[in-house]
Amino acid sequence: MSYRPSVENVTKAGSNEKEGLYEFIVKLADGTECRAFYHRFPQWRMTNINRLQKTPCPVCRKDFICNCMESFSGDIGLQIEDGQWIDKALAE
């Protein structure tokens, strides 16, 4: 069975607007929460993503630090872009 993340909600966690750096909490449909870091200039791009330690990793089932979400960063980033989640999170 292959893991397929599905973005359910995105909220802004922090920012350095002068430098164009933003931090978002991404909630996935399976209950996993990730912290995604974005750089705004020259356009929005994800620089890093990691899982918050609230639940075990849905991929490797570890309950400590792992880098599994990094392999899904493209898929998660595309869902955030397609769903315009960044605009929604910044509007809150």
Q: What descriptive keywords fit this protein?
A:
92 residues; alpha+beta; four-stranded antiparallel sheet; 2 helices; 18% helix; 35% strand
Order of H and E elements: EEEEHH
User: For the largest beta sheet, what order do the strands appear in spatially?
Assistant: 1-2-3-4
Low-pLDDT stretches: none
* Number of helical elements: 2
Amino- and carboxy-terminal Cα gap: 36 Å
The number of E-state strands comes to 4
What is the molecular shape?
globular
Structural class by sheet pairing and helices = alpha+beta
- Relative helix content: 10-25%
Q: Mean pLDDT, nearest integer?
A: 94
Could you please describe the fold and organization of this structure?
There is one protein chain. This protein has 2 helices and 4 strands. The chain is globular. The relative contact order is 0.23. The protein has one domain (7-91). The protein has 92 residues and is α+β, with helices and mostly antiparallel strands. The chain is 18% helix and 35% strand. The chain has helices spanning 73-82, 85-91; strands spanning 7-16, 21-28, 33-39, 45-51. A 4-stranded antiparallel beta sheet has the order 1-2-3-4.
In short:
With 92 residues, the protein is α+β, with helices and mostly antiparallel strands.
List the helices and strands and how they pair.
Blueprint: E1 7-16, E2 21-28, E3 33-39, E4 45-51, H1 73-82, H2 85-91
Antiparallel strand pairs: 1-2, 2-3, 3-4
